Amino acid sequence: MRVQWFCFFLSCLTRRVLRGGAELLFDGIKQHQVTLPNQSNPWDIRQLLVWIRHNLLKERPELFIQGDTVRPGILVLINDADWELMGELDYQLEDKDNIVFISTLHGG
Amino acid sequence: MCEEEEVYCPELQDTTQGKSLGKTCMKCKESSAVLLIRAGDAFCKSCFKEYFVHKFRATLGKNRVIYPGEKVLLAFSGGPSSSAMVQQVQEGMSRDAPKKLRFVPGILFIDEGTTCGMSHEERQQNMSEVQNVLQQTGFPFYIVSLEQVFSLPGSILQRGVPEQRANYKQEVDRFMVQQQAQGETGCSDILENLAKLGVNVSESSRESDKMFQSTCRHPPDTHTQKLIQLFASAKTLTAKHQLLHTLRSHLILHIARTCGYSKVMSGESCTRLSVSLLSNISLGRGAFLPLDTGFCDSRYGDVDIIRPMREYSLKEIAFYNRLFHVSSVFIPALNTKVLENSSIQQLSEVFINRLQADFPSTVSTVYRTSEKLNVSKIDANQGTCAKERCLLCLSPLDTQVGEASAFHATQISHYISQKILMKFNDPANSSGKSCCQEGKCCKGPGYGDFCQPRALQAPSFVDMLCYGCRLTVKDLQSLDALPQYVLHEAEHRSRRIEMRKEIEEFLLDKDEENLH
Question: Is A34 left (phi over 0), alpha (psi -120 to 50) or beta?
């Protein structure tokens, strides 16, 4: 029974400015620290996206998630590394993982 | 909020190293990779920084358009690309840079909050945030609101005279000699050096800087109202985008001219350029692709727009900003939270991004294509037809083409589809004209519009535009909402054309002149 914690920043994050577009869909909150409910299988990014969609997205989910993955043009960083190096949707989350979503789309 | 990140840092490194699926940096082959630039090209953090910084300097070095000591205006929007650009210039100027950049930068931010209905307070907040970021750069900066387009002079729509420059190498040599001389006299004041070079950084321009900053604080309400009206009169989001782009370029040009900048750096990434390549083709601006997407855009003559970020993809920029803590400011724009099919620009972006997700070489392919495009022969002989430029975008007009062209075909079809309307209105039109000459109007106000000078002017106004700008103007409900400088310049031009026609008989042809 493991409790998972991760910080959930949205946007181009810097020490001073913590904004970058995608947060508009999340009620203006840039950073989320969430505890995922326990489940028998380990959590992966695919399940995390479904969870985000149901629990965090306040409006227009299609602007963030399309199909079972993120909208093309939104980058995903897992612990400050490209998710393409980490297995993308199949990456298994660990305790205290830090996932960042950066929108490269014009207008955020 | 950031503290957490710092607390996690040591652990983060452990996890990344353990889980990079065995991928190491392709360059140093030691550290574990953090970023995949292209399929198979994985970079570690330090190699990525080196690569990124090198690319910026290589782009500038390869093109040799910025002369040493020249004043360069950095167009800053708050977004990731222009933030990265400003940071790169800062990096290049820093003392420990191996080959220091030798131009003199200034930064311009244009507040466009009105266009997307932001309140005064929100705009103030954005501006103070931008100010905080810009103050840290140490460069002089201007914060200007888009409302200032209503006080622009008509001369902004005239092409400037390109400055005659000696060979790049000679200029560099001259600069070096001057710097050496300066070093001997012990005078390290860069301002004086510039004054010697004839670049205008006088106190008066400093004062004008202050003027811009102070006026931007409180744009007059009448101007704000006018701007809202103008954007409300555009029927489509596509037209709004084009309109904003046009006004913004005029304002940038104006600030550059009044403050003595001869180059403007614009931070478009290659992702953005491939999107605008596709959308510009769809918008009927295909003839100007080399100007709109190329490295150096010299349509204004005296001020060149250069795009030093065009070798970077947005992914690289986003990673760079994130990994090296480059501050950017997020400001909602016209296309924030809009539907995918709301405008042509938006649609092209979605198209490119979708393709890119499945075929990772999409952007680079489109971008390489844009690189191969060259200025058409119209621009090659610009010396002869320098006057015939689009009123709005200042590109050489693409409407003087042969009979058997797509342009003429669309013109004819447009004419024919209007003919029915014209027939319907014909008696009103002809009688309207005759009654107007007599100084009275026989019809009601609805028909009366027909003999208003503005309505009569409309066709000639459209004639001064390129095909792409015609489409944008067609989407405007009325031309009256356009800023005064556009209307003035249009009037000015049509008067000149008339005058030219009047004295045409007395003018000597160039060929004739040669004969005599």
Answer: beta
Mean pLDDT to the nearest integer, B284-301 = 86
- Domains in chain B: boundaries: 65-163+182-190+212-372
Question: A105 vs B319: CB contact, 8 Å cut-off?
Answer: no
Is residue A23 in some structural domain?
yes
H/E run at residue A87: none
Q: Report which of B64, B61, B29 is spatially closest to residue B43, judged by C-alpha positions.
A: B29
Residue A14 belongs to domain with CATH number: 3.10.20.30
Selected for mutation to probe chain B from A9, A11, A14 (highest B CB count within 10 Å) is: A14
Domain B65-163+182-190+212-372 classification at class level: alpha beta
Which pLDDT value is given to residue A28?
Answer: 54
In a domain, A3, yes or no: no
Query: Whole-angstrom Cα distance, residue B77 to residue B189?
Result: 30
Q: Tell me the ipTM for this assembly.
A: 0.79
How many distinct structural domains can be found in chain A? 1
| Residue A2 falls inside a structural domain | no
Residues of B in contact with A8 (CB under 8 A): none
Q: How many CB pairs under 8 A join A and B?
A: 135
Helix axes B270-282, B314-323, angle to 10 degrees: 150
Range of the domain at A43: 8-103
* DSSP per-residue string spanning B41-60: EEE-HHHHHHHHHHHHHHHH
Distance CA B463, CA A45 (A): 56
- Give the span between the Cα atoms of B286 and B280, in whole angstroms: 6
Counted residue by residue, chain B has a size of 516
pTM for this prediction: 0.79
Taking a C-beta distance cutoff of 8 angstroms, is the pair A73, B349 a contact?
A: yes
* B177-188 core/surface letters (b: 16 or more CB in 10 A; e: else): eebeebeeeeee
φ/ψ of residue B385, rounded to 5? -115, 45
In a domain, A40, yes or no: yes
What pLDDT, in 10s, does the model give residues B62-98? Answer: 888 888 888 999 999 988 999 999 999 998 888 777 7
Do B43 and B30 touch, CB atoms closer than 8 A?
A: no
List the single residue in A9, A16, A63 with the smallest CB-CB distance to B327: A16
State residue B513's pLDDT score.
53
CB proximity under 8 Å: A 9-68 to B: 9, 11-21, 23-25, 30-31, 33, 60, 63
For residue B110, list its beta bridge partners: B144
Most B CBs within 10 A among A17, A30, A57, hence the mutation to make, goes to A17
DSSP state of A40: S
Residue A1, min C-alpha distance to chain B (Å)? 21
Is the per-residue pLDDT at B21 higher than 80? no
C-alpha–C-alpha distance, residues B92 and B266, integer Å: 17
Residue of A25, A81, A102 with shortest CB distance to B16: A81
